[in-house]
Design goal:
Blueprint lengths: L5 E8 L5 H11 L17 H6 L6 E8 L5 E8 L7 H9 L3 E7 L6 H12 L3 E7 L8 H12 L7 E2 L8 H11 L12 E10 L3 E10 L2 E2 L3 E4 L5 E3 L2 E5 L3 E3 L2 E2 L4 E5 L13 E4 L18 E7 L5 H14 L4 E7 L3 E8 L2 H14 L4 E3 L6 E4 L5 E4 L13 E14 L3 H9 L4 E9 L2 E4 L10 E9 H5 L2 H8 L5 E12 L1 E8 L2 E2 L5 E4 H18 L7 E7 L2 E8 L15 H21 L6 H4 L10
Parallel strand pairs: 1-3, 1-4, 4-5, 5-6
Antiparallel strand pairs: 2-3, 7-8, 7-16, 8-15, 9-14, 10-11, 10-16, 12-13, 12-15, 17-19, 17-20, 18-19, 21-22, 21-23, 23-26, 23-27, 24-25, 24-26, 28-29, 28-30, 28-31, 31-32
Length: 615
Amino acid sequence: MDPELIRNFCIIAHIDHGKSTLADRFLELTGTVRAEDMRSQFLDQMDLERERGITIKGKAVAMYHRAPDDVVYQLNLIDTPGHVDFSYEVSRAMAAAEGALLVVDASQGVEAQTIANALMAMHYNLDLIPVVNKVDLPQAEPHRVASEIQQVFGFREDEILYVSAKEGTGAREILDAVVARITPPKGISKDPLRALVFDSVYDSYKGIIAHVRVQDGQLSRDQRLKVMSSGKVADILEVGVFAPFPKTVDTIYAGQVGYVATGFKDVRDCSVGDTLTSNSKPAMEPLPGYLPLQSMVFAGLYPSDGEDHNRLRTSLEKLQLNDASLRIEPENSTALGFGFRCGFLGLMHMEIVQERLEREYDLDIIVTSPSVSYQVVSPTGEITNIDNPSKLPPPHEVKEIREPVLDLTIVAPDRYVGVIMELMHSRRSEFKKMDYIQGGMVQREGVDSDTAQSRVVMEYTLPLVELLADFYNQLKSRTQGYASMDYTLKGYEAASLVKVDVLVNQQPLEALAMILHRDQAVSHGREVIQRLKAAIPRQMFEVPLQAAIGSRIIARETIRAMRKDVLAKCYGGDITRKRKLLEKQKEGKRRMKMVGRVEVPQEAFLTLLKIGTET
């Protein structure tokens, strides 16, 4: 197929601004999906996506559109997530496209993730088409929002398109604009094959199915593939495109998006970012892959039943194939046995991975409290990354501890400036600057405003660990849901941090160890101990719960023993008989306390997540 007749584009927007609904209208207009098969958010096929109403995985689909010049074009669309935790999915979609639709809600206007996605698209040098969606809503203000888009991103008024994704008005004009404004792919069909793997899934029969964007050459079923990074060679089992379900074809041409069933059974043989080429006529240089991800949040995943350890490892490896942002490494805990230390992009990402393991792989798992990665500087100047508080060296081997710090952007109506500042002040944040967006005009701080529609863009630096302690929920509740946020990792900065150990029955529980700021250590430790006391059931012996910094106990609670009445069957008799029974019970409790093991329920490991929810 002539690359001049191909357009590759993705849809980017803030969460819940109508990306998937707009994709539904495109599928209907192009006849890709029959009317009787159509349902809302058609591309969101995962149960979790439909239940939560959000997009988790980017979806590719090939459509055919007849333009006003009566020429049929192939439009390869990739629908992307909107949540900040899945921004890596968005970046991969952008790397496989030449253009993007920047969708903005006509009632909410420019949000934090709108700005972040637009900047990312500019980084990839994509052709951007601004779209104002939901113009049919009673509270819609399309012209005000269009003015915001012009001022924030620099678009001209005639470049902005208006659409109601729910009703479909304006959708055909957007497809015409995609053909007219987005550059066709520059691949050369006669060159050796180079195909970039931007996603992949595992199939029990077909092995690894790689989702690819063919940059140069042609990908045919009669070829033998070679993975340029590993040198692995495979016979192609199937080649196809997404229309929107997998549809087998003979050849995928330069500039097209499709899939190839490689037959690889080992998940390490072909990964996201690899370049596929022909074994008989290989390319000389691989395509630029994706930058390696830096995990932001870490937690331990352990099977409830120790015999499921191997099944958990296999499931995580298959899930990692479909989710390249997931990082895993083996871990061992004295309290929980063998498990895995996993790295995630955020709390939402961690929650989705946990639910997918439980639903898709039928696993019952225990997830430890989330933490972040710290840099520990030794007296000799050596820097070590620590993603598990239990691995922190003794105090005499630590010169300083550096914590990850974020650049945080918050967009909200200006009437919430006070409550946002109050929240940020309680989170060890540092104020950077504040801009006003008023009626589409960006104004500097200090300019008078009389318009009720004015909104504010606030920028802070914030330690990442503060974001884990229920920050997002607090921000939403204090601003009645109007605030949005986006963040990027700024770097690491030194802070006064200490390790707080949690001891259950005199034994440290590694899974609940924390690295906290010294000023917050006592209050956090006390609250964790109080929550543990409520979560751990009573035993036959007294169980002390302690929080400690080194050898100094900073908080203590005691779970009282369950008392069995050993004198119930004694009806009279010598008092020495009763004393003998009581002494025997006392000795048994003392011995049980020494050798007894306290089972800590799953709720205890979630207790750190809830700290700060009542503030």
